[in-house]
Write a structure and sequence with these properties.
about 90 residues; mainly alpha; 2 helices; about 85% helix
C-alpha cells in the first residue's frame, strides 16, 4: 500500500495496529531479501521443466534403443538372405 498506492506509513500502521518501527523492519527485510520470495517459485518451475525434459530424454533413449534393435534384426536378416542366395 505504501509503495504502490503511496499511502502514508502512519495510516497503514493504524489500520493494521502495528508500530512504525515494525513496519520499517519488515520493509528493510523485504528490500534486502525480497528476491528470495520469487526465486522459490522460479526454482519450482525450473525443477518441473527439468523433470519434463528428463522424461522426454528417457522416452527418446527408449525409442533409439528400439530402433537400433530393429536395424540389427534387418541387417542380420539381410546377411542371412545373402548367404542363402550365395551372394556372399
Amino acid at each position: 500500500m505504501h509503495l504502490i498506492e503511496k499511502a502514508p506509513i502512519s495510516d497503514i500502521c493504524d489500520q493494521f495496529d502495528i508500530q512504525a518501527t515494525q513496519f520499517y523492519q519488515w520493509q528493510k527485510m523485504f528490500f534486502e531479501n525480497g528476491e528470495l520470495a520469487f526465486s522459490k517459485a522460479d526454482k519450482k518451475q525450473k525443477d518441473k521443466t527439468q523433470q519434463n525434459l528428463n522424461k522426454k530424454i528417457s522416452q527418446l533413449e527408449e525409442k533409439i534403443t528400439h530402433k537400433d534393435g530393429v536395424i540389427a534384426e534387418i541387417v542380420e536378416s539381410n546377411i542371412n538372405l545373402k548367404k542363402n542366395l550365395g551372394l556372399d
